[in-house]
Amino acid sequence: MVGMSDTSLFRSARTGADGDEMFAADGTLRPTYRALHDALAGLGLEEFRSRSESLARSYLDQGVTFDYAGEERPFPIDAIPRVIDADEWARVSSGVSQRVRALEAFLDDLYCDRSAIADGVIPEELVTSSTYVVDAVRGYRPANGVRIHVSGIDLVRDGDGGFRVLEDNVRTPSGVSYVLSNRRAMAQGFPELFADRPVRRVGEYPGRLLAALQAAAPDTAGEEATVVVLTPGRYNSAYFEHSLVARTMGVDLVEASDLVERGDRIYMRTTAGLRRVDVIYKRTDDDFLDPEVFRPDSMLGVPGLVRSVLAGNVVVANAIGNGIADDKLTYTYVPDLIRYYLSEEPILPNVDTWRLEEPDSLVEVLDRLEELVVKPVDGSGGKGIVIGPSATHEELDALRRRLRADPRGWIAQPVVQLSTIPTLVEEGPEPRHVDLRPFALNSGDDVWVLPGGLTRVALPRGEMIVNSSRGGGSKDTWVLAAGRPGAAASGLADQDEEGIEDPTDDTRDQFDDPREEHGEERGVEPDPVTSAIPIIEADDEEEDRHDAQ
């Protein structure tokens, strides 16, 4: 541990409590944070607060927003970054990659062979009782075998300081736009913080995402694959992310009305007629994707999309039917799935979890309900979670009734004391609880983990749920490069194969251009939103008229 003198900036952050990532319990500074702490402390509270407020205003001006209780708000960013050293990140990255590979094998097995059920690794009831299994895609294998093109694996630190997996997100994981925006904002607002700290870059994410999606395309006979991002529309709470991801990849952002099925193929309407689509990066739930298979009243889907997928003419990323891997009951079996499919021990352990469908576990949880956290297996965004120690007697009684009526629908976990990081509040920096969502991309040849990910922070004092839907914010997450102190300051950043952040380099665009490494000329970037243009080829218009009759 490293001693430190008292400063006005961090006085309220040194609480002497366990679990803080910047300060040890005795108030001394942890080595990983020493350089960052000293740089921030040198600014002083007023300067730091002033720049933090400018950061918040820039987010409002740029439209970096999210939906909170039906209101569009700027996404809160805290200007004290989270720092993870190279050795710890290597373990996190390996553990996330391992988990994605195991879940890929599980989904392929589930929809094709079901050997894990036959071998007793998972019970058949796990599958038959899940509402996420899509029978329509049983037997389907994507062109390059990838179903989880993008994943977000939520991690928390346990009482010993190590990372554990809290849940898996392999349907439509969100939040990467804030990772990219946070880094850009921090590099512009606090460039001196990067001066002698070799922070790994995050700007290559859009290029790697595009490459992974193009690698998933069906055979295009030598033509470049056409990739689009499918959004439910501008009123969706994550629309900012949909637009940013499409723009930084240089592809079209489309709504369902922009797409049409013809002969088991999907086309995009353009002013020049129909253009074939090869890969659809969907940002909507399966239930709304195709009214022929799912909800017939959906206006957010494309009729015939599933037929086109099964015909092998278009790929949907992430794959239809991935929801069973997000099921929190499936989560409890992932360590066993890693051993079964990969013949490896899990690198990142789960949080201890009770399966309430097991009678003995249900009895124990009902007896200890006021001590535990209880979660719906199909919940997201912190919805439905009951934290026993902070719940009222009435809430616990109602929960007991729900658990007895539907034990399959719930899991229980001990209260995990999330680690804290100093976070700017009204009085100055104070400890606030955080989690971490690393993002991984699977190209079929490799699982690449974005160095850092989204650190979410619970802004109200004592709050344990970090989701933005509960008023949470985020921090820039710094992963330090291995063995390269002073790399950015020495001018070696561009030569570092790990990719070191250099805010003084104004020759780079907002994010890395995915075409540069392929030597492609930069053309006119497409409009981020393709309007629903009614002009299509005459034969297609006649076919539309015939189908409607």
UniProtKB/TrEMBL annotation:
Bias-annotated ranges (Acidic residues): 494-504, 537-549
Classification via InterPro entries: ATP-dep_Glu-Cys_Ligase-2, CP_ATPgrasp_2, UCP005522
Highest taxon in the source lineage: Bacteria
Gene3D superfamilies linked to this entry: 3.30.1490.270, 3.40.50.11290
Positions with biased composition (Basic and acidic residues): 505-525
Positions of the Circularly permuted ATP-grasp type domain: 81-458
Region (Disordered) location: 486-549
Record protein name field: Circularly permuted type 2 ATP-grasp protein
